[in-house]
UniProtKB/TrEMBL annotation:
Domain of life: Eukaryota
CC annotations in GO: extracellular space
A Pfam family the protein falls into: SPARC_Ca_bdg
Domain called EF-hand: residue spans: 61-96
GO molecular function per UniProt: calcium ion binding; collagen binding; extracellular matrix binding
Cellular location(s): Secreted
UniProt source species: Scomber scombrus
Keyword Repeat in record: no
Keywords: Calcium, Disulfide bond, Glycoprotein, Metal-binding, Secreted, Signal
InterPro entries: EF-hand-dom_pair, EF_Hand_1_Ca_BS, EF_hand_dom, SPARC/Testican_Ca-bd-dom
Keyword Lyase: no
Name this protein carries in UniProt: SPARC
Length: 154
């Protein structure tokens, strides 16, 4: 019995190599991140079975969601997200977290190691929508973000 508990202890010390972020995963990351933000924004609200999924949100609604999350993450209120601000995101608990650093670096267009609100919303919202349109048209045969009820029952 002792040897099995020792084996478990030894196994827990083994480092698992970090997965590389593929181009496809990096493309999908902003959509999944916005989905996570949507879930977080709905936590604590009363349950609404008719709550729209992200795919049905308008560009304006996605932008507002990204802006609200930016304001929450920008702890020193300087209008920029630094690495320190982004660490508070706890993205290690998210799916595809191995793409987070690469994604945030790609949002920093001027390479000053800070992401402005404009960089954040352009990167997060525009890339999320671009990925989803591509995914729906290439994989699902439709480019519509939110099918109508009629389409769901055909």
């Amino acid at each position: 019995m002792e040897s099995s508990s020792q084996s478990v202890f030894v196994l827990s010390l083994v480092q698992v190599p970090k997965a590389n972020c593929t181009e496809e995963e990096l493309g999908q990351f902003p959509y999944r991140l916005l989905d996570w933000f949507l879930l977080l924004s709905r936590m604590g609200e009363s349950y609404a079975p008719a709550a729209l999924p992200q795919s049905c949100l308008s560009h304006t609604q996605r932008t507002q969601l990204a802006q609200k999350r930016f304001a929450l993450l920008d702890k020193n209120k300087d209008g920029k997200l630094s690495r320190r601000d982004l660490k508070k995101l706890h993205y290690k608990r998210m799916p595809l977290e191995h793409c987070a650093t690469q994604f945030f670096q790609s949002c920093d267009r001027n390479r000053n190691r800070k992401v402005t609100l404009q960089e954040w919303t352009d990167c997060l919202v525009d890339r999320s929508e671009a990925w989803f349109y591509h995914f729906m048209s290439m994989r699902m045969g439709s480019h519509k973000l939110c099918p109508t009820i009629k389409e769901n029952y055909l």
